[in-house]
Amino acid sequence: MLEIKNFSKSYGDKKVVDNLNLSVENGEIFGFIGHNGAGKTTTIKSIVGILDFEAGDILIDGKSIKNDEMACKRIMAYIPDNPDIYESLTGIRYLNFIGDIYKVDARLRETLIRQYADAFELTANLGDVIASYSHGMKQKLMIISALIHQPKLLILDEPFVGLDPKAAHILKQLMRELCDQGGSIFFSTHVLEVVEKLCDHVAIIKNGSIITEGSIDQVMGDQSLEEVFLELTDHE
């Protein structure tokens, strides 16, 4: 579903990601972890078409984000680390705006909005302007907007920041459900316990390069993911 091939990205003379290669299969939750500044967000923003890059390619369901950006964006959704959305709109107008962009059938859209808004306890607030929302409420709205067009690939950057424990639990359930239905997820987080319990596959990035990658069991061995992460990133 997602294939990153020989991907490199620089800002001026500084190379922040160097010859990165990885793939995410259908039905797989892939955790992408590393210290701040390791290259996680740069990689994610390149996957979703926000950043250009000078070397390599990124394929979404076999299509290049460089050469067929719109086809790629139609089948994926992105939840950034900061919910920067149109604060002058009400929650429901924003969700309908996203539904219109992706041409989601009106009846299906209504059903999915109700389902997800009820799950995240946001239904009563959908008529309020987004400017009145807390950070956590905005994050919930972003999650709902990402799910209503039923993406094949979901890209998340620190998705649990700002969520209360119940909302975080619901998001983890929805992530697993999407993959059980054949979708794929690629996400970054600093919450290693979530990666350990939720992910099928994991990669650790340091200074723009992958230092280990494999199934969660392969990477962990008989250690915790935290122990592996600290050992590799502190001494590699």
From TrEMBL:
UniProt keyword Transport, yes or no: yes
Organism the protein comes from: Dielma fastidiosa
Keywords of the record: ATP-binding, Nucleotide-binding, Transport
GO molecular function terms listed in the Swiss-Prot or TrEMBL record: ATP binding; ATP hydrolysis activity
Record carries keyword Nucleotide-binding: yes
SUPFAM superfamilies: P-loop containing nucleoside triphosphate hydrolases
Annotated CDD domains: ABC_DR_subfamily_A
ABC transporter domain span: 2-232
PROSITE patterns membership: ABC_TRANSPORTER_1, ABC_TRANSPORTER_2
Protein name per UniProt: ABC-2 type transport system ATP-binding protein
Pfam families: ABC_tran (PF00005)
